[in-house]
Write a sequence for this structure.
């Protein structure tokens, strides 16, 4: 049973000078891209509206998602609610010749931002992330170009995705970084070693992506239930090889959830919110969904407090995860 609390969530500031957002955002990547199977468009737009009603204000997209289709899908919602939302998008991942290249050259950044603005139908992007770092391009050149976009009024705040602590420090010294977006969940705890402490030290906000383990932590998604073409079929954690170990972990989360009258998704999100206290930094997870009932359920996770004993039990369970995380998208 889901917790019945669906009141609006509180807000937090990302970074010392960054945007103020609801403490949970909405990951929009699967919308209109087919990455996680098909969707009902009306239901997906209703999910965006319901999220906003509940205090979710950070909406996460990227130019690479569906090669622009994701930003285009979001356009009517973004335009209708321009002053009430914080739209975050990204540049740097470019699909070509059947593969993915990383392009962080200043010339690419300058054309990418104009293309994103056009697709989103707006004249300023609130939070602009470098999606991936290409070590062949000096970071100072890329951050310099991003900083110029702030000066030009095309972007308000800067973010980085999947960088290491040294890269974050170097970038932050050139222009304040408001947020780091990296995978972080009960399934993926590597971020706690280096990048989360660095963000806390610098006062940079943290935006954990795939906080529900790309759906697996909800207990409702295994490889056999995925539609043809769903990109998760190729991901290690969804493989037959690792299914049994991961199912046992998820069943343990389900047992704990039952004792709290909550759902596994809510427990996984409450665990991340608790990390905000552990590491003393702003943590704004961005679970993805295209279903209004699920946005209500997931927002419930932001209202749920876990005890130290429950956190310890979840840490113990999390050690059982098998399979590598995917960094492709
Ligand atoms: N920066 C990066 O490199 C990067 C990489 C990956 C993702 N991201 C961002 O992070 C966001 C979230 O990550 P994600 O979408 O990969 O994974 P996620 O949020 O961990 O999981 C999303 C999956 O869980 C399902 N789901 C959501 N709530 C549920 C619930 N309460 N019960 C059952 N199923 C539920 C969704 O299905 P439905 O949609 O059908 O509800 C979807 O299949 C993305 O949308 C994207 O914006 C960023």
């Amino acid at each position: 049973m889901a917790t019945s609390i669906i009141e609006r969530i509180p807000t937090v500031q990302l970074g010392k000078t960054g945007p103020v957002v609801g403490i949970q955002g909405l990951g929009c990547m699967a919308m209109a891209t087919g990455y996680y199977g098909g969707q009902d468009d009306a239901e997906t737009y209703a999910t965006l509206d319901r999220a906003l009603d509940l205090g979710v204000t950070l909406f996460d997209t990227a130019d690479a998602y569906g090669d622009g289709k994701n930003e285009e899908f979001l356009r009517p919602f973004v335009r209708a609610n321009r002053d009430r939302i914080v739209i975050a998008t990204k540049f740097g991942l470019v699909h070509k010749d059947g593969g993915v290249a990383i392009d962080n050259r200043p010339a690419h950044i300058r054309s990418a931002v104009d293309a994103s603005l056009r697709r989103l139908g707006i004249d300023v992007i609130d939070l602009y992330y470098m999606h991936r770092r290409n070590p062949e391009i000096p970071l100072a050149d890329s951050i310099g170009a991003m900083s110029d976009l702030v000066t030009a009024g095309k972007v308000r705040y800067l973010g980085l995705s999947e960088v290491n602590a040294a890269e974050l420090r170097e970038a932050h010294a050139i222009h304040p970084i408001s947020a780091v977006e990296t995978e972080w969940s009960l399934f993926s705890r590597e971020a706690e070693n280096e990048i989360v402490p660095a963000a806390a030290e610098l006062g940079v906000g943290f935006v954990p992506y795939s906080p529900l383990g790309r759906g697996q932590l909800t207990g409702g998604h295994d490889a056999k239930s995925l539609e043809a073409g769903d990109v998760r079929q190729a991901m290690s954690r969804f493989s037959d090889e690792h299914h049994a170990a991961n199912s046992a972990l998820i069943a343990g989360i389900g047992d704990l959830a039952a004792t709290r009258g909550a759902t596994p998704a809510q427990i996984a999100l409450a665990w991340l919110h608790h990390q905000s206290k552990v590491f003393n930094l702003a943590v704004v997870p961005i679970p993805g969904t295209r279903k209004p009932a699920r946005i209500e359920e997931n927002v419930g996770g932001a209202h749920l407090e876990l005890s130290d004993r429950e956190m310890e039990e979840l840490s113990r369970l999390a050690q059982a995860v098998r399979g590598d995380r995917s960094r492709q998208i």
